[in-house]
Amino acid sequence: MPKLKAVYQTLLNKWYAVIAHRFFWPFFLIAGLLFSIAASSFDLIDLYVQLILIYVGINIILTISLNLINGYMGEFSIGHAGFMAIGAYIASLLTVNIFPPSAINFLFPVAVLAGGLGAALIGLLVAVPSFKTRGDYLAIVTLAFGMIVKSGIENIEAIGGPRGFLGMEKLTTLPWVFFWTVLSVWVIRNLVYSNFGRGVLSIREDEIASDLMSVNTRQVKVIVFVVSSFFAGIAGGLFAHALQYINPRMFDILKSTDILIMVYLGGIASIAGSIIGAVIYTILLEVLRPLGIWRMVFMPLMLVLLMIYRPRGIMGLREARLFVPLRDLLAVKFWKQKKKEADDAPA
Amino acid sequence: MPLLEIRNLTHRFEGLCAVSDFNFTLASNELVGIIGPNGAGKTTVFNLITGVYRATEGSIYFTGNELVGRTPHQITKLGIARTFQNIRLFKELTVLDNVRIARYGQAIYSPMEALLHIGRYNAEEKRITDHAMELLSIFKLDDAANERSKNLPYGLQRKLEIARALATDPQLLLLDEPAAGMNPNEIKQLMEFIGWIRKTFQVTIILIEHQMRLVMGICERLMVLDFGATIAEGLPAQIQNNVKVMEAYLGKELVK
Predict the structure, then answer these.
(1) Which residue, among B159, B154, B164, has the nearest Cα to B96 in the 3D structure?
(2) Rounded to whole angstroms, how far apart are CA atoms A93 and B161?
(3) pTM of the predicted model over 0.90
């Protein structure tokens, strides 16, 4: 056994050396992009597998953005599917009714971005009044918000009402999903490892102490909520153009619950956890498809067991080194090195 | 101009008068103690000064600025920092992050720069981290900088809380029962420590305390509260022999 442990340690150190190399990220990104382009244009992998990979990417975006509110900030939002719906409908309306069909391929990112911005704007409108008071009102406000969005869309005949909306081309391809997933992971990681991110964490730990340590808690909460809604909107736009059909029931409370499960499965306040949670959940749902209705027994059972044995999720409150900026990872080491140099200089 | 001036401060919780007609003036570089039995309203005074509660009546001036009506983070930015009776560190975060969070008000970059890690982000982060590490090394906590703060021993947690408060660059430091849970030997060390902080960081200090030994030893002036009212004020030696104070602490019968 000790030998096995030593092997593991060497491998781990090797891995740390690899990810610390300055070409690691550029290499990974270029390789990932090339692979996704090749896979989708030459049909290297099965279309069904491609679709699952697309869902994995979309779910990563949803999970990581909800984790910002529920994990990092410690508030409880249950209306994430509502923001997704707004993004999905805005992007679909743009590509089907407004943008010229000839240029649709180039304008698709604009449509997705518009969906994200629309969701962010609505997020701002929800956040400003709900963060006026302290406490657990957010859960109720977002629950109501999700219902309002769903019944709102059901009652607008112009966008299909309860029948849904169709006519989108299959514009969500693997490279685009890869691009948006990487972007959202990167941006949210940046936010977490910044002054605002530390403010977010301190709100979770102790809101009053945080306010007394000069953190503008209300501003931080609004920023986080808006960023989170933005990425939910992006995911919605991608989802609509992957499925080519949307209806209001797809974005009900069950969808929000799905995202919550992925967050708590992977682990709160962790980027690596969000990715793991989204990947495991999405793939398990597909693998267990033969079980039919029993799938819906198995999944909650898994959740119950998880909550008993690992209440904070697989990676709860821990982060893989991969996602920690070197500046933060080695902050203490850098500082000590510099101090030692300064001390040695006069001698 | 006094550093802090409190006039006719009154605070009621649904009819219960926690602080009534509190008047207080504090000059720069003073070290004043507020004492009183449990429930006398000492911590409420701190909560009113720092904006956690909004005073029912009265006004608080700090370097000429009215504090009543401002939010806690605005007040902290003006230069008032505090610690808590029961330690309130950010437990799951590292020692370094605890201190860096207190530099929130001093960091200058926009949310956009934070999202993309561009512009002023790099320089500002370096400045914040260096400042936090300097502060930690002054407190001899730099070796524990990567520890989660909940893993520190009790004494170091108290120390870290003071370091975190000082990271906001305060002119006025409010210490809420810093000696809670300490033995006489540790209290002696704490007395020296508070004196050292006062000298090193040039801060004015208000101290809430139960431990008579501590307040009598280091405070230049004392206020005694009981049921929200100020019952005595003066030099430690005067307070020691004040009949009203003895009554408040021991009960009327015993004093007779």
Answers:
(1) B164
(2) 54
(3) yes
Fold assignment, A47-342 = ABC transporter involved in vitamin B12 uptake, BtuC (1.10.3470)
Among B233, B236, B192, B231, smallest CA distance to B216 is for B236
Domain map (residue ranges) of chain A: 47-342
Are the beta carbons of A194 and B77 separated by less than 8 Å?
Answer: no
**A146 and A253 Cβ atoms separated by less than 8 Å:** yes
Q: Do A212 and B117 touch (CB under 8 A)?
A: no
Q: Are residues B84 and A213, on separate chains, in Cβ contact within 8 Å? A: no
| Chain centroid to CA A149 | 21
Pairing of strands B65-66, B229-234: unpaired
The residue assigned the tokens 């949670």 is A277
Write phi, then psi, for A75 (nearest 5 degrees).
-90, 180
Nearest CA distance, B243 vs chain A (angstrom)? 37
Four-residue CA torsion sign, A282, A287, A293, A295:
negative
Residue A231 contacts residue A159 (beta carbons within 8 Å): no
> CA A291, CA A294: separation in Å to the nearest integer?
5
Sign of the alpha-carbon torsion through A96, A97, A99, A101: positive
Number of Cβ atoms within 10 Å of the Cβ of A154? 17
* Chain B nearest CA to A257, separation (Å): 27
**B206 with B82: CB under 8 angstroms?**
no
The residue ranges of chain A whose pLDDT is under 70 are: 1, 134-135, 346-347
Write out pLDDT tens, residues B32-83: 999 988 888 899 999 999 999 999 999 999 999 999 999 999 999 999 999 9
ipTM of the complex: 0.92
Calpha distance A123→A120 (Å, rounded): 5
Cβ(B225)–Cβ(B36) under 8 Å? yes
Is the dihedral angle over the CA atoms A272, B89, B135, B64 positive or is it negative? positive
Q: What share of chain A is helix, strand, coil (3-state, %, to 5)?
A: 80, 0, 20
Q: Running DSSP on this structure, what letter comes out for residue A133? A: S
B249: pLDDT confidence band, cut at 50, 70 and 90? confident
Q: What is the C-alpha separation between B2 and A345, in angstroms, rounded?
A: 45
